[in-house]
């Protein structure tokens, strides 16, 4: 239960900083990871620490490729690693599925509520019409949109919170 409380505190801080500054700080993440390792050592011994470290590496691995391809910030990757360290492998795997769903919903909202939606929709329609008729039209890249960041920490938090409620970690 302690790990769930720590998780909610961590997510609250990270969502606030991600929304305000588009950053998730190491100064927040590393103390939570260290605290998770210490508390897992106290409550579960070597097995607790091993589970926390394995969960951390699984969380890190889930977002490592998107980070290496340039589509994800390092703070997002480390946040999911700390979640894995706090809650373990099973939790972080399930939370990552819900994180991806929340991220997709966020992307759709961003697509429809940012300036130039009509132009983007026309580009998408042309792309798919060409694709299904054997003609390859490249999607035009909007330079302004390419520079805009996306607070994916919010999607990570949504997935983790949903998973916490789903597994019964929180009693209301």
* Series of secondary-structure elements, N-terminal to C-terminal: HHHHHHH
- Poorly predicted runs are none
Task: Report the mean per-residue pLDDT as an integer.
Answer: 87
> Treating each run of at least 4 consecutive H or I residues as one helix, how many helices?
7
Fraction of residues in helix:
over 70%
Distance between the termini: 13 Å
For the largest beta-sheet, the strand count, sense and barrel status come to: none
According to DSSP, the number of beta strands is 0
Taken as a percent bin, the fraction of beta residues is: under 5%
Would you tell me the structural class of the helices and strands? mainly alpha
Supply Rg: 19 Å
What is the overall shape?
A: elongated
Number of domains: 1
Task: Describe what is shown at a glance.
Helix content is 80%, strand content 0%.
Describe, in plain words, how this protein is organized in 3D:
With 172 residues, the protein is mainly alpha-helical. It has one domain (2-166). 80% of the residues lie in helices and 0% in strands. The chain has seven helices and no strands. Helix 1 packs across helix 2, helix 2 crosses helix 3 (74-87) and helix 3 runs antiparallel to helix 4. The radius of gyration is 19 Å and the shape is elongated. The mean pLDDT is 87.
Characteristics:
single chain, 172 residues, mainly alpha
């Amino acid at each position: 239960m302690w790990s769930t409380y720590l998780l909610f505190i961590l997510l609250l801080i990270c969502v606030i900083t991600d929304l305000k500054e588009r950053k998730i700080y190491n100064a927040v993440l590393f103390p939570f990871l260290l605290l998770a390792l210490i508390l897992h050592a106290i409550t579960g011994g070597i097995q607790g620490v091993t589970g926390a470290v394995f969960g951390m590496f699984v969380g890190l691995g889930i977002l490592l490729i998107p980070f290496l391809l340039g589509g994800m910030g390092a703070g997002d990757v480390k946040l999911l690693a700390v979640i894995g360290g706090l809650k373990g492998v099973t939790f972080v795997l399930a939370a990552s599925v819900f994180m991806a769903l929340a991220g997709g919903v966020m992307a759709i909202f961003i697509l429809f509520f940012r300036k130039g939606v009509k132009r983007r929709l026309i580009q998408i329609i042309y792309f798919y019409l060409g694709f299904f008729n054997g003609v390859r039209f490249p999607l035009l890249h909007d330079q302004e949109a390419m520079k805009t960041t996306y607070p994916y920490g919010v999607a990570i938090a949504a997935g983790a919170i949903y998973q916490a409620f789903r597994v019964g970690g929180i009693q209301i």
